[in-house]
Specification:
This protein has 130 residues and is of the alpha+beta class. The protein has 4 helices and 4 strands; from the N terminus they run ββααββαα.
Length: 130
Amino acid sequence: MARQSRAHVTVNGIARLKKRLEDLPDEIRQALAKGVQKSAEAIAEDVARNVPVDTSGRDTHHLKDTVGIKYREEGLIAEIGWFDQEDYYALFVEHGTRSQPPQPSLGPALQREKGRYAGRLTDEVRQALR
């Protein structure tokens, strides 16, 4: 389902079955893409709720406001994370440094969604078949 790299994760929507997907009707592929989108949005919202925020007032730029989603392969692959150069420090927040312990939000959000992912895809395909 996912691969974690730097300060973003990639959610693959049936990437191993790409050849079979090409044979599926467009309605089913669109339903799968919709399921991937719902999971990606759920992960992004979870991250925004749980990423640490500097409340000292010194910083007005917060990772919770800049978590984003990029889609590829007709919406069947979603990358969730921080894509702007200004958010380079998300890597340090997620994985920690020598002087700062990790405060992960992306990895835990992915794990929480992992159990719902297959169900989301199944629900969307069922709705498309009705």
